[in-house]
């Protein structure tokens, strides 16, 4: 089975992520807040779209942002420096399964649109739990393509979405993972699990959402896997193009589009014996592999 980021790392995908973060900021982050000076670990920071929101979510927040892509980290650094001057962010290029970070060093763990791309999200959540201090919290945000409902309805459009779901599954991911967040967090050993749906609904009365989310985020994401769907023999060019055209129609006057994201929060259980201390391992110091922003540009 192939694993990887099914959407790719193109400039077009970077713009799509920017559009997505901007239009969904209030929906996903209206209740995101950290205590002053909190240590936050963001896993899978991508191009920094969510990092910007995290840096604005509390005074003096100290963020460690991790991604496996050097290019994404470069774009993320540039974005944070431009949009949140003075943000305290350290950058780490690493695999989330092999993070050179000590146990219990973070107050909060933030994972957004990452689990859907992993072949074993339960193993990832379980392994990452050790990085939280006892009593520390985690936020996980994921979508669920099965929640897409639109007008006018179209079997071609529904088929195109289904093809993207199958391609992501072939890459080891799960585009329907939103519905599983609660069970995954509980099975991974977190406590006080709460999952809330965050619904996007776009119609004539919400033109910004119709443009920013329906067309520039969701339809653009489906459209981007055209060649992969054709190469896999999932559809014909004519049927695919008809499906994309019908999806675009939902963003025009008279059309509607509905999609649900799921935001899960939980905590690492406090064990007897106190909270313990954070010790940086001598063999793999926290600075290894990092490229912190220069003073005045962080």
From TrEMBL:
The keyword Methyltransferase applies. One of its GO terms (biological process) is methylation. Keywords: Methyltransferase, Transferase. InterPro entries: Methyltransf_11, SAM-dependent_MTases_sf. Signal peptide: none annotated. It comes from the Bacteria. Residues 287-298 have a biased composition (Low complexity). Pfam families: Methyltransf_11 (PF08241). Residues 278-298 are annotated as: Disordered. Residues 41-138 form the Methyltransferase type domain. The keyword ATP-binding does not apply. GO terms for molecular function: methyltransferase activity. This is Methyltransferase domain-containing protein. It comes from Streptomyces orinoci.
């Amino acid at each position: 089975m192939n694993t990887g980021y099914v959407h790719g790392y193109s400039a077009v995908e970077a713009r799509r992520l920017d559009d997505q973060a901007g239009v969904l900021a209030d929906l996903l982050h209206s209740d995101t807040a950290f205590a002053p000076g909190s240590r936050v670990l963001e896993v899978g920071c991508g191009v920094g779209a969510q990092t910007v929101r995290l840096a604005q979510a509390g005074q003096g927040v100290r963020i460690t942002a991790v991604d496996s892509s050097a290019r994404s980290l470069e774009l993320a650094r540039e974005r944070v420096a431009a949009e949140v001057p003075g943000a305290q962010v350290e950058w780490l290029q690493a695999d989330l399964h092999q993070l050179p970070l000590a146990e219990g060093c973070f107050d909060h763990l933030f994972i957004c649109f990452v689990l859907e791309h992993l072949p074993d999200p339960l193993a990832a959540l379980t392994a990452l739990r050790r990085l939280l201090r006892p009593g520390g919290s985690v936020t996980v945000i994921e979508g669920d393509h099965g929640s897409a409902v639109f007008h006018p309805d179209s079997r071609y459009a529904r088929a195109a979405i289904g093809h993207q779901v199958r391609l992501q599954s072939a890459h080891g991911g799960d585009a329907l993972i939103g519905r599983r967040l609660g069970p995954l967090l509980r099975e991974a050993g977190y406590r006080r699990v709460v999952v809330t749906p965050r619904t996007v609904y776009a119609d004539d009365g919400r033109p910004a959402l119709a443009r920013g989310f329906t067309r520039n985020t969701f339809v653009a994401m489906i459209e981007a896997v055209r060649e992969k769907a054709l190469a896999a023999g999932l559809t014909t060019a004519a049927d695919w193009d008809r499906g994309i055209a019908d999806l675009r129609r939902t963003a025009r006057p008279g059309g509607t589009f509905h999609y649900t994201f799921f935001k899960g929060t939980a905590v690492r259980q406090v064990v007897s014996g106190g909270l313990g201390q954070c010790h940086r391992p001598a063999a793999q110091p926290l600075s290894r592999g990092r490229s912190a922003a220069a003073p005045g540009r962080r």
